[in-house]
Amino acid sequence: MDWDWREDVRSALRDFGAVSELAGDRVDPQHAEIEFLCAPHTPRALPRGKVAVYGFWLDGTWLKVGRAGANSNARYVSQHYTESAPSTLAKSIRSDERMRNISDLDGKALAAWIKRETSRVNILLPATTSKALLSFLEAFLHMRLQPRYEG
Length: 151
Description:
A hairpin with a 2-residue loop joins strand 2 and strand 3. This protein is an alpha+beta fold. It is globular, with a radius of gyration of 15 Å. Helix content is 39%, strand content 20%. Helix 1 packs across helix 6.
């Protein structure tokens, strides 16, 4: 049976609802919008009035989890597919010995590979969500999903 990466996210959000309530700043999982973009996927713009935590999934492994504030559309839409910013999925793949067969691709081919082969989840919250709570959700998902690439 294939692992259901979507259930990983749903389950984590349910648990985060309880944890965030204990922390005094509850996120109701029913009010979070979840976009599951199965491979191949096309990145979408960060909706106006939203912030996000997102993740990339490949063959049973979470690769990267990150967050984007309301003014971080470039980070959200394009930077992880290129090496144009610090700590991108593309840079992490490029430096990973386990991904040697992919890391030799040129920049455009690597971006195309990420879009073609990985699935992506976008967890959208209102832009009024505090930066601390958004960071807390990202950290919780790091702990829960154990993505291969951090930083």
